[in-house]
Design brief:
Elements (H helix, E strand, L loop, with lengths): L1 H18 L3 H12 L1 H15 L3 H10 L1 H10 L5 H16 L4 H14 L3 E6 L2 E6 L9 H20 L12 H7 L2 H18 L7 H14 L5 H16 L5 H23 L7 H7 L11 H6 L6 H15 L4 H6 L9 H21 L16 H45 L2
Antiparallel strand pairs: 1-2
Helix pairs in contact: 1-19, 2-6, 3-5, 6-7, 6-8, 7-8, 7-10, 11-13, 12-13, 12-14, 12-18, 14-18, 16-19, 18-19
């Protein structure tokens, strides 16, 4: 393990050292870290509202807590893009010695201006709506683009003294608010031009453009187990670059409906499942949510740095319930070259191990069984596939841990050295 770690460090360290001083990467890292207060704080509500206990669910429904809880999650975890764009812009502006509040406000306004509005008649009145997905999963990549590009443009324009010059007698609070008006006008014209330009395309808006582009390759893949693995590897790669995988996975799930129905029909008829391998792979591809991140969360139990010792207390429980935003945004995994390889390939290794074990021990899966999405995988997979599937799940988690751990050690060692240098 030590030799392998040294080898990895020779490859990864030069890249991370160069990126660690890059303004864009620093802003992204700071932005993601700042959203942890939302992802961690709201995850406990998401878990409680979705606990698969019938008596608990009945209580939540009868008391009205269920709707309040779901609404709460919808305005926190589900709207992560709107928090992310402001946070990234703030960190970029602060590191670039600009007025962070001014840049944050302009960036958020520009991001929101790009969102198409819908007018729907409700109770005889026209009401204007914003599609929530544009502020959530489908908007993360656009939020990152706005959070980086707009503060960059702002800085370039400010360096050219494109601002209103006010007398020294004007209070700084007033001066800071008025002087960048021309800069704001230019940035808003750019945002307006981008929004207008996309109306001439078949996509209609920039959000649909990115969603469509990343889902097209999925349509080319078949329904084999390894085709599904390829889809998830591609989804993980997109998530690494900040493109939320939900559009990819939701598109692919439509293609798999015939497979699911065929398995259900065979099971009800008492016949062997025609797509058993496909089912087995499906149950180990996403342990801990996209990227099979539960193995990485478990790795924090062996941390030596104070950063990741503290992180272990925050990420493991949510990740057990398939909430991995604290991991993705906390480490972060997005655009972090240390974790690119395991994030993309862990699902393939886990799937290979699962298929190998399925050839050695008998596996019987009930495709009609379903559990809420926050149910830990070792519970839901046991319900669907009994002891055999539980064994496969444990092995898949172990494989995920082994894939992530060498890279985590590098990250942990780097964090430990930074802590020692600041003492």
């Amino acid at each position: 393990m030590n030799k392998f770690q040294v080898y990895l460090e020779k490859i990864i360290n030069p890249i991370t050292s160069k990126l660690s001083t890059n303004k864009f990467v620093v802003a992204l890292t700071g932005g993601f870290m700042s959203t942890m207060v939302i992802t961690l704080g709201a995850s406990i509500i998401a878990i409680l509202v979705n606990l698969p206990i019938e008596a608990w669910q009945n209580f939540l429904t009868s008391s009205g807590l269920s709707k309040v809880g779901l609404d709460f999650v919808s305005t926190t975890l589900t709207l992560i893009a709107i928090y992310l764009v402001g946070s990234i812009a703030y960190h970029y502006a602060k590191n670039d010695n600009r007025n962070p509040i001014t840049v944050l406000v302009i960036t958020m306004a520009s991001f929101l201006s790009l969102i198409p509005l819908s007018v729907i008649e409700v109770n005889g009145r026209n009401s204007t709506f914003i599609e929530l997905s544009k502020l959530g999963s489908n908007g993360v990549f656009v939020a990152m683009l706005c959070g980086l590009s707009i503060p960059y443009i702002y800085g370039k324009l400010e360096d050219k003294n494109i601002k209103i010059k006010l007398p020294d007698s004007v209070p700084p609070m007033v001066s800071d608010s008025i002087s960048p008006i021309f800069i704001g006008m230019i940035i808003f014209i750019i945002a307006f031009s981008v929004k207008y330009g996309f109306t001439f395309t078949s996509y209609g808006d920039i959000f649909t453009f990115f969603t469509t582009i990343i889902t097209k390759p999925v349509m080319l893949l078949g329904s084999s187990p390894w085709g599904k693995v390829a889809v998830y590897m591609f989804a993980n790669l997109c998530w690494f670059f900040g493109l939320h995988p939900s559009p990819i996975l939701s598109t692919y799930s439509v293609m798999t409906y015939p497979i699911i129905l065929a398995n259900i029909e065979a099971f009800v008829a008492g016949q062997p499942l025609p797509y058993l391998d496909f089912m087995i792979v499906s149950l180990v591809l996403n342990i801990g949510a996209t990227g099979n991140t539960l193995g990485l969360s478990i790795g924090t139990l062996f941390a030596k740095s104070e950063k990741y010792k503290s992180m272990s207390k925050l990420v493991i429980v949510p990740n057990l319930f398939n909430i991995n935003e604290p991991v993705v945004f906390g480490f972060p995994l997005v655009l972090n070259p240390i974790y690119l390889f395991p994030m993309v390939f862990t699902c393939a290794v886990s799937s290979g191990a699962a298929l190998l074990i399925s050839k050695l021990i008998p596996i019987s899966i009930n495709p009609t069984a379903s559990m809420p999405w926050v149910t830990p995988y070792f519970i839901s997979n046991f319900v669907m596939g009994g002891l055999g599937m539980l064994i496969i799940t444990i092995v898949a988690i172990l494989m995920s841990f082994l894939m992530y751990y060498p890279f985590f050690r590098i990250d942990d060692q780097k964090a430990l050295q930074e802590e020692q240098n600041t003492q």
